[in-house]
Amino acid sequence: MYRFITILMILSFLFLELFIVTDGWAQRYELSMKELEKYKGPIDDPAPFYTNIEGYKRIMPIDAYKKVTYDVDSMKKLWADVVGFRAPDVVGKVAPEIKPGKYTYEDKKKYPFEKLMLKHLYDRFNPPPKSGPRHVGYFTEIEIVPTRQYYHSLPVAEATKKYMGVTKQDSQGYIIQDSYIAGFPFPKPSGPFKAQQIIYNWDKSYNLDTEFYWEHVYGFTKDLRNDYEGMATAYTARLQGRVKWEPLGWFDKRAENQKELKVFQYMSTAPRDLFGNIIQVTSYIDPDRFDLFLMYINSLRRIRRMTASDTQDPAVGQDMIYEDWQGFNQKLTPKRFPYKFEVIGEGEFLVPINWDGATYMSTKEGYILKNIQMERRPLWIVQLTQLDKNYVYSKRVFYIDKEFLYHVHIENYDQKGRLYRTYDTIWGFIPEMGTFNQFHVLALDHVDTHSTAYHSYSYPAVWLTRGDLSMKGMIKMK
Amino acid sequence: MKKKKLLIYLLAIGILGNIGISSTIMAKELLVFDRPLNILGYMSQEIGFSLSDKDRFDTEKGLQTTLTNLFVEIDYKISDTFKFYGSTRITGDWIYQIKHNDSSWHEKEFDKSMGNLNIDEKYWQILREFNFTWTPGKFFFRVGKQIVTWGELLGLRVMDQINPLDSRRALGLNDIEFDYTPIPIWLIRSEFHPGINTKWLQDLAFEFVFNPNADDINDLGVPLGNNEAGIWAPNIRIPDPTAPLEEVRVGSAITKVKSPGHFNHKGYEYAFRIKGVVYDTMITLNAFYGLENSPILRFADPTNPFPVVRLLPNGQVILHPWFEGKFPRFRFFGATMSRDIPFLKVPFLGNVAPILRIEGFYAYQNTFTDSLSAPVSLNEFKKFNEFRIALNVDWKIKIPFLNPKAYFFINPQIYYRGVRHTGGPQDWFDTALTRVGRHNLMTTLYIDTVYLNAKLRPSFFWIHDFEFGGDYYLPQLMYDWSDNWRITLGALIFHGKKLPGWENGSFKSNNGFELFKHKDQIFLRITYRWS
């Protein structure tokens, strides 16, 4: 009798499920790491990833691809209108004798590269040292390409234009959160809070807006011994001010009820100790409300509530803290680790950017970067001086592109004033989508001399629903 | 038996050979039928040296453990909603082969515990997990051999009552994060996520777990006697002025336990949980109806509780008890809660808010025994209600002069167990044969930090048992040379009051950590992990 009741209970549950299932059947195109790396290996592979994958056209269903691609000329025209210029029109004034073409580090003797490269890049434009403590990511050859115009996707550009001037700042320059609706809040930063406006553009950016992300990470000791290899995939979504595809505005009722800003759900697949661990962080519009940080710990087989204020310890084997994720992932608030914001410079610099995805790290040649393309870019240099001595960094210095509004190089200094960590992004650009990937990132520790090289991509995941980004999503992802 | 061991050796060598040959392949995800397959695992070799100051009957001086673990897990995503996960572990302590001709090892009868501790050879020890997961829509089903954890704590288990535990080696206490002490069992687990949310409710799920009692897999506790428990045998003595050494020892037990058998409804277990996130607080409500994972015992013949008495060559008298027992009913209602406490973040301590975790349950009519009570014992089982609750705080604080680059993780816990004894002069013992007072209090403290890009992790774990005045310490240093190689150096240190004896007018048998205070050990473990 007991056995019969039990079996009946299980069967009814299964049948109930078949009738109740209502969501989650939209076509997913979530490729595995192995499938993605068929297009380009994480190291020693010169394959042009974006060319091979046709800007993700080859892996996305055609209807999803159409949904996230736009007319390139329209995007260019509108974005030039939004930011007020086109980069090709404003560069070429510094060291004009350096023309597009191929150069080696030996050409530094012939041309004034020091005027056109930020110091960190200039120093790495060399063969790697053969002995002593050293980093990976030197390069000996570059190709300078003519400066191209960058832009964001059409809906983002439209929203930015529509809501230009709407976002308000308080007397200290912090955003009045209720005044922000969508788009980049300050496409033409100006006035006494210009530095904060530049940083807010990153804070409210559409980087990783509802995307499937994956990364393959390598860590190296000061004698270039590979001491870490990590792999992870993630779902990310913007929950407020959505403009790219449905749902528009708020992601769902929960996001609106809770005033949620973003969510990311990140699962490690390597190294072994981290395999299956999933972190899910939901942040709120109010920067003083702590994020909801849940972690599925695979070895414990349980979801644990973690504190979102634990943001300064280094990620295992890597050269960044939680608040360095994607370069800068720190809440801007006068109540916790506040900054003094300053624009300390601007100018024209050679910056590596990638359209074809051919850049790679060569382990056989001393872990140097190959197939580097650079172009002249107009940048702001913004300094954030930490006002609380208890924070791990005393200041952060950002080099931020004036046209596409993302950082390209970040310097973080410790409380003794020493250069502690740097974060260099080679952005991958997908022209038809008007979106960017942090295609190759080099995070370096200059105090303990350790390097981390990230090889990562992301593409629009139009299938993502709350079911994927909840407790259910966490246990399903594993 | 020898054939079985040979087969296990061959299996281990085969797996190792494959790892050696295909390590470059196994460092990556594989594609099988165009679906991702991950093969991961680790192999570890541990050696343990006794810290005992002199040669004693219940410990072995010098090298006393050489534990090898080979763990392989396979994760195969068959489709977006269907997955397979399996893991296998081969565990062997080669000290039995190394000490094969050692006279001390034989005289103390450690060699006779070979069947329990040399090689874990039962199918359910080798096959750890083996389960299929199906996640259609708002549902989640996992069927097969698996682990279900409900608890929130580190090093203590309150709510985790579904899976049995393996605590034969080091009492399972060197596995603070429960990586390998839970024993997977055959379960059906289902969840329903209705997607309901309101202004106060952010997430909600219902979970139901059914144990069909497919196999007789129970706790592997520390048995009595050197010949069963090896070097981890509890040092139980009974004062006896007439005995040659003025005390007698309790050795291994003859035990007859009634078990419900396989697929018998008497052994079915049901567990139900509602979990949700309410105002950023993770809350669960839990209910369980099943059996204890360890039997409750009493003397089979109270007129002759120790039918076998032996005299060892050193003059030691060993009494072997004869127990009978059963797996008693266990049912509870409980809850867990965890959330951060923002107002406790203090700038000079690093501005990190602590996480408070609470878990507790009320168990109805739990069974206890008074058989080991002295001097009064009626050799009976009795049912009492009990309440268990634990508080845990996870806090990261900055101590710049000790570590300018990373925080210290501080984790104190308090565990209270209240049992509603009803009268009688006897002491009452639970299924672990641990004496349980009306109010039992235990605290733990775990501290760690990281250096060298989180590669070097010193840690310290301490348990204090107020009931017996005992302590357990685990200082440990872990270094990740790479994400493959890890070296761990640590020590297990037990401390307890000098018992048995009279205390406050009543006789107290020795119990708690005092039973293990000669087991202090320093260990070195080298682990190779791959993914």
Describe this structure in words.
The complex is a heterodimer of chains A (478) and B (531). By secondary structure, chain A is α+β, with helices and mostly antiparallel strands. Chain A is built from 12 helices and 17 strands. Chain A has helices at 2-20, 33-36, 49-52, 62-67, 72-83, 87-90, 113-116, 119-124, 154-162, 194-203, 253-258, 471-477, and strands at 101-104, 141-144, 211-220, 226-238, 260-270, 278-284, 292-297, 302-306, 339-354, 360-362, 368-370, 373-386, 393-401, 407-414, 419-430, 435-445, 450-460. A 5-stranded mixed barrel of chain A has the order 9-12-13-14-15. Chain A has a two-stranded antiparallel ribbon with strand order 10-11. In chain A, strand 15 and strand 16 form a beta hairpin. In chain A, helix 5 (72-83) runs parallel beside helix 9 (154-162). The radius of gyration of chain A is 23 Å and the shape is globular. Chain B has 531 residues and is mostly beta strands. Helices cover 8% and strands 47% of the residues of chain B. Chain B has an 18-stranded antiparallel beta barrel. A 4-stranded mixed beta sheet of chain B has the order 9-10-16-15, with no helix packed on it. In chain B, strand 26 and strand 27 form a beta hairpin. Chain B is globular. At the A-B interface, helix 1, helix 2, strand 4, helix 11 and strand 7 of A face strand 2, strand 6, strand 7, strand 8 and strand 18 of B.
